[in-house]
From TrEMBL:
This is COMM domain-containing protein 6. The gene is Commd6. One of its GO terms (molecular function) is NF-kappaB binding. Residues 120-187 form the COMM domain. PROSITE patterns: COMM. The lineage of its organism: Eukaryota, Metazoa, Chordata, Craniata, Vertebrata. Belongs to the COMM domain-containing protein 6 family. It comes from Certhia familiaris (Eurasian treecreeper). Scaffold protein in the commander complex that is essential for endosomal recycling of transmembrane cargos; the commander complex is composed of the CCC subcomplex and the retriever subcomplex. May modulate activity of cullin-RING E3 ubiquitin ligase (CRL) complexes. Down-regulates activation of NF-kappa-B. Inhibits TNF-induced NFKB1 activation.
């Protein structure tokens, strides 16, 4: 991960660290590495989404472990310095600054540690479409609904999951959402 961190400009690295701390503090559902990667690539840096996700996972592990062990800023920096592959100076400075400013607020509760690791729902989009024809069938006129769910996995990575449903399937899906809404109103 240290080799990939060297590629990331300091301002983008600081933004990534801030987002990870905010995610660990439950102030945001996750880190949109795809959007951040696109901005980094637009600035002229050649880094893949997969590499940026690895860096984000490494930093998330670093910050959550530091929070779990109640490390001070100096203890965290000393631990980083003893690593096999040393981090670039700008990365250590950013980690020091972010942990000094916001690390104390990052508390990993016992309940959070014991909680099952599941994703968190962020957003949902849908659209109605009609399949007019295909190479094997001249006239389909088949309506369908495409649903895209945006989910943050336990490490904070935001991904989109898409699926299509027939109209009867969508009506059943909608009915189940209405049932959930009515149950939530009674709570």
């Amino acid at each position: 991960a240290a080799d990939k961190i060297r590629l990331i400009p300091q301002d983008f690295f600081a933004e990534l660290c801030e987002q990870i701390i905010q995610h660990l503090n439950h102030k945001m559902p996750g880190i949109n590495t795809a959007e951040l990667c696109q901005r980094i690539q637009t600035s002229g840096v050649d880094i893949s989404i997969g590499d940026l996700a690895k860096v984000a996972n490494t930093l998330s592990f670093l910050f959550s472990t530091a929070a779990r062990n109640n490390l001070s800023t100096e203890e965290l920096i000393a631990t980083l310095g003893s690593g096999v592959s040393t981090l670039p100076k700008h990365a250590v400075q950013v980690i020091r600054h972010v942990w000094n400013e916001q690390g104390k607020a990052t508390a990993v509760s016992e309940d959070a540690r014991n909680m099952a690791t599941v994703g968190q729902f962020v957003d949902m989009k849908w659209k109605l479409g009609v399949a007019m024809s295909s190479d094997t069938c001249r006239s389909l006129k088949y309506p369908y609904v495409t649903v895209t769910l945006t989910v943050a996995d336990p490490s904070g990575q935001i991904t989109d999951k898409s699926f299509e449903m027939t109209i009867p399937q969508f009506k059943n899906f909608f009915r189940q959402f209405k049932e959930m809404a009515s149950v939530l109103e009674t709570v």
